[in-house]
Amino acid sequence: MLSADLHTHTNCSDGQLTPDQLLAEAVEKGVQLFSITDHDTLAAYRQLTILPPEGMKLLVGIELSCTWRRMTIHMIGLNLDAEAASMLEAETKQGQARAQRYEKILQRLTKAGLDIDTERLITLGGSCPGRPHIARYLYETGQVKSETQAFDKYLGQGKMGDVKECWPDLSQAIDWVQQAGGVAVLAHPIKYRLTRTKLIELCTDFKEAGGEGMEIISGQQNPTQTKTLSEIAQKLELLGSVGSDFHKPGQPWAVVGKVAALPPGVTPIWTLFD
Length: 274
Ligand code: AMP
Ligand code: MN
Ligand code: MN
Ligand code: MN
Prior knowledge:
By secondary structure, the chain is an alpha/beta fold. The chain has 2 domains: 4-87 and 168-272, TIM Barrel, CATH 3.20.20.140; 93-155, DNA polymerase, domain 1 (Orthogonal Bundle). The protein has helices at 19-28, 43-47, 85-111, 118-125, 131-140, 147-155, 170-179, 196-208, 223-236, and strands spanning 4-5, 33-36, 57-68, 71-78, 183-186, 213-218, 239-243. The chain has a 7-stranded mixed beta sheet. α2 (43-47) links the parallel β2 and β3 (57-68). The protein is globular and about 55 Å long. 43% of the residues are buried. The structure holds adenosine monophosphate and manganese (II) ion (3 copies). Adenosine monophosphate (AMP) binds at residues 14, 39, 65, 130-132, 147-148, 151, 156, 247.
């Protein structure tokens, strides 16, 4: 069976390893089909100084933030041309949206009475500022008990730090990826915590907007959820993708290359890359 991991992060977004370290880790784990999919940036591909070894195929990838019905959704673009004009546009626009959103979140938290050192947070955010930087800051300054609590109380979906209307809609994200010759995959559908009906609506809209695949295996997910996703993918004729969503070592639920097999009946997205 092919060992694939098509969703991972480096320190070019909110991951911990450098691009070289992550690629080396994937090689060590025996991954044969691999992608680095940082949030809204392809910087990792510009920073890599090592090549994938023989026996590993590295697909250029990205995880784009976008909007569906006022909710933030993530979409993975795979096998794209990093030099394409649409990707340059995507990186620029997403970078601007990220910076503006970050500022808005900090303003809201300040207004709510939290102790926010804007200058320090902007430094912490670096070139890809996001909620994980704020969560870490709140934890390190003793304002929450854990980074998870920061999301639960202030940053997660529906909380004050969940700034709406900063990302493009789903079809824009799909277009950017497809214009760069890539394929569009709906990321971690379980994470949006939708009802079954809404989940089917999201996947249907994604397919209608031209999306090709959806992640069937991602992070922490139980067998019932995997079965639901597999049924939806087959019904809508979406190809199946798999990814660890690795961010840093020490998280047993997200280890590079450790992804369950695609359920039989789902056509793998890599049939497109042969
Ligand atoms: P952002 O890119 O700013 O929207 O932040 C989203 C990122 O935050 C995700 O990709 C995860 O890495 C992280 N994240 C989301 N929810 C949580 C959570 N509940 N606990 C910890 N990290 C989270
Ligand atoms: Mn992340
Ligand atoms: Mn994501
Ligand atoms: Mn991710």
